[in-house]
Automatic annotation (TrEMBL), chain A:
Lineage, uppermost ranks: Bacteria, Bacillati, Actinomycetota, Actinomycetes, Kitasatosporales
Membrane protein topology class: Peripheral membrane protein
Compartments it resides in: Cell membrane
Gene3D superfamilies associated with the record: P-loop containing nucleotide triphosphate hydrolases
Keywords: Amino-acid transport, ATP-binding, Cell membrane, Membrane, Nucleotide-binding, Transport
GO CC field: plasma membrane
Source organism: Streptomyces nanshensis
InterPro entries in the cross-refs: AAA+_ATPase (IPR003593), ABC_ATPase_HisP-typ (IPR030679), ABC_transporter-like_ATP-bd (IPR003439), ABC_transporter-like_CS (IPR017871), MetN_ABC_transporter-like (IPR050086), P-loop_NTPase (IPR027417)
Protein name: Arginine ABC transporter ATP-binding protein
TrEMBL record, chain B:
One MF annotation (Gene Ontology) recorded for this entry: transmembrane transporter activity
Localization terms from the record: Cell membrane
PROSITE patterns given in the database record: ABC_TM1 (PS50928)
UniProt name for this protein: ABC transmembrane type-1 domain-containing protein
Domain ABC transmembrane type-1 as annotated: residue spans: 74-279
Organism classification: Bacteria, Bacillati, Actinomycetota, Actinomycetes, Kitasatosporales
Protein topology in the membrane: Multi-pass membrane protein
A GO BP annotation: amino acid transport
Amino acid sequence: MTDQPLLRLHKVEKHFGDFVALDGVSLTLQAGTVTCLVGPSGSGKSTLLRTVNLLERLDGGAVYLRGEMLGFTRSGDHRRPVPKKVARRQAVNFGMVFQSFNLIPQMTAAENVALGPVEVLQVGRADARRQAHELLSRVGLADRVDHYPAELSGGQQQRVAIARALAMKPSVLLFDEPTSALDAELVAEVLAVIKELAMEGFTMLIVTHELAFARDIADEVVMMEDGRIIESGPPDRILLNPTTERARSFFASVSH
Amino acid sequence: MTTPETLRSGPVTGEELELHSMPIRDPKRLAHWLSYALGAVVLVLTFRFVVLNPHWDWPTIGSWLFSRRVVSGLLNTVLITVVSTAVGLVLGLVVAAFRLSRFAVLRGMAAVYVWIIRATPGLVLILFVYFLAALMPTLSLGLPFADPFFEVPTNHVISQFSAAVIGLSAYLGAYSAEIFRGGVLSVHQGQFETCHSLGLSAWRTYTKVVGPQIIRVITPSLANEVVTMFKNTSLVSVIGYVELLTTVQLVYSQNFKTIPMLTVAVIWYLVLTSLAMLGQSRLEKRFGRGFDRRVVKNTVPVATAEQEGRHD
């Protein structure tokens, strides 16, 4: 084991026209740690997540996974985007769980989970199906494998989405507000699954508004505002005893 | 007003039925009976107009319906429709891909193509293609202003058949391109993001994930275009290609049985359209997977599910 971090973000910048979504964000994730991104809406949390798995192309800085720069390659005195094939290979290192689940509606739960392994990892259909069943059992959905997404509750859909992300055997799991689209009573079942994964040692980067949950599972909490990190550290210190006035007022306004 | 009435009019004989356990039935209102009456009147009028009217001349229709001339015209119509639909849909796919391209030149070319074809009546389009030789005496393949690699006189290439096919598929190409593009735009952005996250190539994204969703959405509009195509084939009668309509026109110009002969054509168009609609409903069923309501299967026990996986 080297002490090279698993994931390192170095002065990441992202602009949408004149709007600066990310203004030089630096962050490191050690393998096996859980990092929660918190902050008000529009502070750049989701954008940061999306630049990491190359859904958005960053405009400055870099993201390194095990020391390899993602999304760009050196070309003389400048960088240029890597070919799509390389970008796809890099993106597969990240298991993304979206706020709106994004299950594929015409595929059953098991088909959703097996899709990536079959089409991208070249796993045989029977093996992929068996693995899908195992993963769905793991998230408590053994009895829902042949259901279509429309036949599942929001919490169940999100758990299928988590199983689907796990099926790609990612190095880092990315969660983009995984419970924001759920009814209060369904939030707990999804958080329980995420917590279990954290205890199994998955490296995770989680955008969340569930501060109690962040406090419970995070090794580090990062607070963002206006595209910048304004405070970061262990959850107890950040959430209970923030140093900046802005963080204090934000946490006061969100009950936890 | 009616509530006390209903309360009183419960069953009185035998054991008293509780109000809350009475079955619920919708009353037949006056509007229902009026609609039945209207239906009956329309049915009788139609019967009188179609069956009892001697001017239809059903015996003539019957004798021509399966005659060799009409059937060969019908086959020509089917042939043109199938070929033009196939070529037109492929063209439409290409044009839609161009319109959604990240290259402005391709987007521009596709936009101009759609604009011009939409502005041109189908009839004019077919005539234009048929008389293309007047505009370009030879067709050649090569770089502009250089000696061509390959050259043929236009009139050797443009027959009545090929003019019909080129005209009709250019027409369908423009219309179906817009339908395909609309289909792509209708897909939720999250589906593309999911495919990216799973590392699916663009080809796999479209064939496995997004394509089936697009087909589900565009089938009704596309079926419209194909049905229109059956009937647009009648436009090629202007360049003398002997399809169904031209055939019956030729026949009634000799026997003067205009209405019966046109009815023969209409009957066949009805048959063809019904076939297309049958195809449409099968497509809709096939791609409605996950969207249609269905009886949710009972939960599969874990052990069985795993065994299923092993037997696969």
